[in-house]
Specification:
single chain, 216 residues, alpha/beta, eight-stranded mixed beta sheet
């Protein structure tokens, strides 16, 4: 069985890193259950292993942490649901690409609970929404905004880090970085899309859709 944990308040990022690594090691050794851990962080930026220094636009704005996960710069802060995913990928097929697709599908299925159509885009990590409420771009296309990010690391075939869904964060805080190295698209949230949702609403949807994507 997979354990679910929800931590209220704001979780310090360094504590979360240490806790994830400790739990991932315990899972790999067969001493602990797999874990889905739901948290919020105080405002901060994280740098993945592919982060480019030029993408940190405002380095003095918030604390910056080396995340030791895949990907580039991301923002975490209040109003964003961060989901740390500690699953035994070794027992789930040892297919990292398929595992990432599962994480994306989990986000897409969770958004669908609120009638939001999340989409993948080739060459762009994360989940995107087409903005029918915004003017066409110069290329006569509907603009697309990012609503969820993901980045993982594996140790002994156990995953840690995970994904984040923007529920109601301060979207202006994303301006201190080039999110995930993509400058030509914006960032949105469920509340920005006009949905008066709470973190608890999203948590229920995450729990409901999990079993449809991952074998428990």
């Amino acid at each position: 069985m997979v354990e679910w944990r929800i931590t209220s308040g704001l979780t310090e990022y360094e504590f979360a890193l240490a806790e994830m690594e400790r739990r991932a090691d315990a899972i790999a050794q067969g001493h602990a259950q797999e874990l889905i851990w739901l948290v919020e962080h105080p405002p901060l930026y994280t740098a993945g292993t592919s982060a480019k220094p030029a993408d940190l636009v405002d380095p003095d704005r918030f604390p910056v942490f080396e995340a030791r996960r895949g990907g580039e710069y991301t923002y975490h802060g209040p109003g964003q649901r961060v989901v740390y995913v500690m699953l035994d990928v070794g027992k789930r097929g040892r297919d990292v690409r398929a595992f990432v697709r599962q994480l994306e599908q989990w986000i897409i299925d969770t958004l669908a609970e609120f009638n939001v159509k999340g989409e993948r885009r080739e060459g762009r990590v994360g989940v995107w929404v087409v903005r029918d409420d915004k003017p066409l771009t110069a290329m006569k296309e509907r603009p697309e905004d990012k609503i969820a990010a993901l980045g993982i690391r594996l140790r002994k075939w156990v995953s840690f880090h995970g994904l984040s869904i923007n529920v109601e964060p301060d979207l202006e805080h994303f301006s201190g970085i080039v999110p995930c190295g993509i400058a030509e698209h914006g960032v949105t949230s469920l509340v920005d899309l006009g949905l008066p949702l709470t973190m608890a609403d999203v948590d229920v949807a995450l729990r409901k859709t999990f079993e449809g994507v991952f074998e428990v």
